[in-house]
Amino acid sequence: MTATAPTTTPKRRQRPTQTSRSAKNRRGVSGWTILIVLAGSALLMVFPFWLALINAFKPSAEYIADGPIGVPTELDFTAIIDFWVGVNFNQKLLNSIILSGSVALIAAALSLLSAFAIGIGRIKGRVWILAVFMLAFTIPQEALVYPLFVLSRELNLYDTLTGVTIILAVLQSAFGTYMLASVLGSFPTEVLEAARLDGASRFQILRMIVFPLTRPTLAVLVTFFFIWTWNDFFLPLVLLPSAANQTVSVSLGALSGQYTSDPTALAAASMAGILPALIFFLLFQRTLMRGVNIGAIK
What we know:
By secondary structure, the chain is an all-alpha fold. The chain is built from 14 helices and no strands. It is 73% helix and 0% strand.
């Protein structure tokens, strides 16, 4: 007898059931819904910037005739020039750049040093210290303004950019310390042990190992600190009363006072205050996204 090879019948492909098709349809509908909601939210966020842009270069007569939504038929730079010259905006812009840049760099450096001691140094009471830092950056500025005012007067730092720089750098470093300490808490100990066996000091470990690896996170912190300081209004308003030391946000607040009735001037002032921070964000957007992605992967 000859053995015959068993014949195999090809399996038929199963047709997608009604439940799988309905699940795909639901996923497609939910995706479109999310996309529409995000697009609507983006339009709502962009709309105030659009209003400030078109009204900053709109003649006053055309604003009265067409309202704030109408697109100007001609560009009029009178409002923005009058604002720029009237408040000495060059000085205000320079003050804000110096203050925001100094605070961003000093706060990032303080955050790195403090987080290095807490996250890698493993000092006692690490959890409680982080809890104190977390509590510190949740305290509103209104609760701190009076003791900071008295302290700056006693140390002859009142109405100086140096005093406000020190105060804002220390306040913002609380958030940076909490963020960096969480990152450095999971730092690979094998790398640190190898560096110590090679005779590296703590400063060399910080400069040659920790700093290069945390550079993306520091870039994120510097960007956040710069924008937060640029938009800060309350502390510069209280601690920088003289016109020569005022920042951009304080000058905008003084312009939109009780007796201001020119909407085109307000729109021009808003554009002049928004554009520097927006340009800074666009320049460092790639660095910011890279730091966030690397932090998420780690």
